[in-house]
Request: fold
Amino acid sequence: MKQLRHRIRSVGLLLCALFLLLGAYGAYSLTNYGSRWFSTSANSWLRGAKQDVIPGDVYDVNGVLLAGSAVTETEDGWTATRRYHDSADVRRAVVHVLGDAAGRVSNGVETFMAQALYGFDQGMAERMNDYLSGARRKGDSLTLTIDSGLCAYILNKVEALSASGAPPRGAVVVMNWKTGAVLAEMSFPTFDPLAGGGEGEPYFNRAVQGRYAPGSTFKTVTAAAVLSDPALSGRSYTCTGALSAQDQEGTVREIHDAGSVSAQGTLVSHGQIDLRRAFLVSCNNTFASAALQLTDAKLRRQAMAFGFEENFLFRDIVVENSSYPDTDRTEWAVAMTGIGQSGLLATPMHLCLIAAAVANDGVMMEPALVRQAIASDGRLRRELVPQAARRAIADADVAALLKEYMADVVNAEGGTGHQAAVAGARVCGKTGSAEVDGQENTNALFIGFIDDPDTPVALSVVLEDMGSGGSCAAPLAHDIFEYILQNGREML
Ligand SMILES: [Zn+2]
Reply:
């Protein structure tokens, strides 16, 4: 009997402990990721509650009003209508990051930040005060880290790239690599929130939802794995222009260097080559054989250190996860992974984070969108506090070497990214040209940064079906870097 009572008490205590743990977890996740729950369409209560509040204004980093409200008196009270910027270019340039009142873009500021914009961050006393004074309640105003001038500039540059007349598809992300503050998060094609519509899935936010093969930009990850492995780091390679590896059916297939087959049909090769030079000329042969020497397990571990396979949970931005393939790991598939193909997928936001982390000595900052949240009575509710998302993508000495490798790509003789170079600045980067089934041309990619703590800018460019990263994406990166260097540093 005594034993039974003792057992019941133990079980009771255990249940109590579990209950407390559950409560603590609930409180924790609601505090940290409340906006994720709050902005879901399942929250129908929100729709009703929204009608009693004037939504807060949204400004860009320079104080340009991106979204405000017009209040009109009606017979039974009043209604607030959302108003956007006068310039159609600015509206189209920021619509994916801002979202729209109709909710066509998922997880834009208008929906994801509804908790702040509709005043649900306000305390009971604040609400009572408004209620008693008869004042209309207004939500918090947000100042974003976005620079609408930069966004409009990028919009014009990208839309001018359209050769066939069809709107270009792709994404551009620009951020401060020291703080994680996002200066531009753009998806193409875009649309005007006042009109809507258009071809090519304009509501889809490719910058954070689009998952792309990273192509040769992934050689940054493969290089990090090699440089971290004492048995492999000093090795030299022999490029024959084509590497043979077995696929699932046991068939031997070849991996070629880009442009390795000359017009005359002969193979052009890099011959004896070290990793650094292979990185600057983007030799597929070297990186495919490096992946095989590393083994799939080591390459996967390095990719995970860079954030692949991670469930991204950022405070301000919802970002799709990037994946490292886990099936079909034949010799050929592993070799292809080493050059950024074979089921590897990453969002343009994540690619920008990778470049930013190399710039920031291996520390990946969490991307942030909100610089300040101000309550309707003028009090500062919240301010950007830079936070690391990952402490180390690689050891500091490896990160430092990667930076040198990326500087070579843009600045050394024969580097594939030389069109991204800007006079007077140390631009670092990596190009990529990813093959996609059913597409005539490759996707053009570029990731890079300015290696200067006074201009800590990192970016990623993805242009679908446009050709090579060196000839299509790198020149756009050049334009963006130059714009930022010329237009002051207020945005940073
Ligand atoms: Zn080669």
User: Anything to note?
Assistant: Residues 239, 257, 269-270, 283, 285-286 surround zinc ion (CB under 6 Å). The longest strand covers residues 65-74.
